[in-house]
């Protein structure tokens, strides 16, 4: 909070310097995600726990994919902030959207194919899928509304509405991505760890 307040003060004092403004936006997203994580850690659901499952999927471990997905979502939000503050163009943000959406779909498919019966994994996965598609459509709407109202003397309400919604839902997307990653690290383990927790050998 202190760092965010400092960046906000620098933004006001020095008339929106681009690196500081982008850093201010990114730190806000991290703060919101941290708050959501604290809410998860203090929830009754977290205290009740759940069964540990094995990561049987071939290829990259599910932990790596979940972390990479959260990082891709954060980088995408950073590119969006850079585009809003005219530090970078919109093309990197559009390319980042393709990468981030692809990572989300990869993670969701892995989770739902292998662990669809696990409530603590299925629910955040479905929430992440829903919010990601909503974010993609809001991004398209925000971009089109900006193009349509480009000649207006001041920002038009429709453009402001879609832009604000796009930023807000982007924060939700990152937060749910991080919560999904936390659940993966808690409930998905390798064969040796599952055997240690359950006391029962896992059949190969």
Structure description:
The structure is a single chain. The chain is an all-alpha fold and about 200 residues long. The chain is about 80% helix and about 0% strand. It contains eight helices and two strands; from the N terminus they run αααβααααβα. It has helices at about 1-15, 20-40, 45-50, 60-85, 90-115, 120-150, 155-185, 190-200; strands at about 55, 190. A two-stranded parallel sheet has the order 1-2. The model is unreliable at about 195-204 (pLDDT under 50).
Topology, pairings included?
Blueprint: H1 2-13, H2 18-41, H3 44-48, E1 53-54, H4 62-84, H5 90-115, H6 119-148, H7 157-187, E2 188-189, H8 191-198
Parallel strand pairs: 1-2
Helix pairs in contact: 1-2, 2-4, 2-7, 4-5, 4-7, 5-6, 6-7
Global Rg: 20 Å
What class do helices, strands and sheet pairing give? mainly alpha
| Strand line-up across the major sheet | 1-2
Arithmetic mean of pLDDT: 86
- String of helices and strands: HHHEHHHHEH
């Amino acid at each position: 909070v202190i760092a965010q307040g400092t960046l906000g003060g620098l933004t006001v004092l020095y008339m929106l310097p681009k690196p500081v403004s982008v850093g201010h936006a990114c730190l806000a997203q991290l703060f919101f995600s941290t708050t959501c994580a604290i809410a998860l850690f203090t929830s009754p659901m977290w205290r009740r726990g759940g069964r540990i499952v094995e990561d049987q999927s071939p290829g990259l471990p599910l932990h790596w994919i979940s972390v990479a997905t959260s990082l891709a979502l954060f980088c995408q939000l950073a590119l969006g902030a850079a585009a809003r503050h005219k530090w970078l163009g919109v093309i990197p943000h559009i390319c980042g959207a393709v990468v981030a959406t692809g990572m989300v779909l990869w993670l969701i498919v892995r989770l739902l194919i292998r662990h669809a019966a696990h409530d603590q994994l299925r629910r955040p996965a479905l929430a992440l899928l829903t919010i990601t598609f909503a974010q993609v459509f809001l991004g398209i709407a925000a971009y089109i509304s900006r193009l349509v109202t480009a000649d207006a003397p001041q920002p038009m309400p429709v453009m402001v509405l879609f832009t604000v919604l796009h930023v807000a839902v982007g924060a939700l997307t990152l937060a749910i991505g991080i919560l999904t990653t936390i659940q993966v690290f808690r409930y998905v383990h390798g064969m040796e760890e599952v055997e240690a927790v359950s006391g029962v050998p896992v059949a190969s």
